[in-house]
Amino acid sequence: MVLTCRGGSLLSTTPSQEDYIETIWILIQDKGYARVTDIADRLGINNASVSKMIQKLDEDGLLVYERYRGLNLTEEGYSLGLQLSERHRTLEEFLRSMGMTNSHEINKTVEGIEHYFSTDALQRIENLMSFIAENPEWWNKFSDWSNGKK
């Protein structure tokens, strides 16, 4: 279980809950809605498991679910979904900048580590990436060094 900052306070969310919220947020961005079957397909699980988690997230105030009518993220759920999606994107970009090129491998790695990054650690990665963008000569030197072209 990790602590996620939401609305200025810390709330415990599990990696599984974060995966659901992030998936729902992405589906809503892509399609304008998220259905239980869409979520199950994206996460590779059955509809019953999704329905159970949806009820829990509804109880936690992260989404509003009406059986047979669909679901919507609350303001808090939307904000968390955005934060989780940005965290995922940042870590993908970081791994690409480190020389990883296989998209499947990048996604697999990010999925394995993303739930364990604190806000501070993520901010430091973002700072490093900004520094790299502003100092390409430094980065090229490092890349050459790490690839054995010392």
Question: What features would you highlight for this structure?
Answer:
4 strands; two-stranded antiparallel ribbon; 150 residues; 12% strand; two-stranded antiparallel sheet; alpha+beta; Arc Repressor Mutant, subunit A
Textual characterization of the structure:
A two-stranded antiparallel ribbon has the order 1-2. The N and C termini lie far apart (42 Å). It is built from 7 helices and 4 strands; from the N terminus they run E-E-H-H-H-E-E-H-H-H-H. Helix 2 crosses helix 3, helix 4 packs across helix 5 and helix 4 packs across helix 6. By secondary structure, it is of the alpha+beta class. The chain has one domain: Winged helix-like DNA-binding domain superfamily/Winged helix DNA-binding domain (Arc Repressor Mutant, subunit A, Orthogonal Bundle), CATH 1.10.10.
Q: Strand count, sense and closure of the main sheet?
A: 2 strands, antiparallel
CATH architecture: Orthogonal Bundle
User: pLDDT below 50 for ≥5 consecutive residues: which ranges?
Assistant: 1-10
Span from first to last CA?
42 Å
Number of strand segments = 4
Q: Which shape, going by the Cα principal axes?
A: elongated
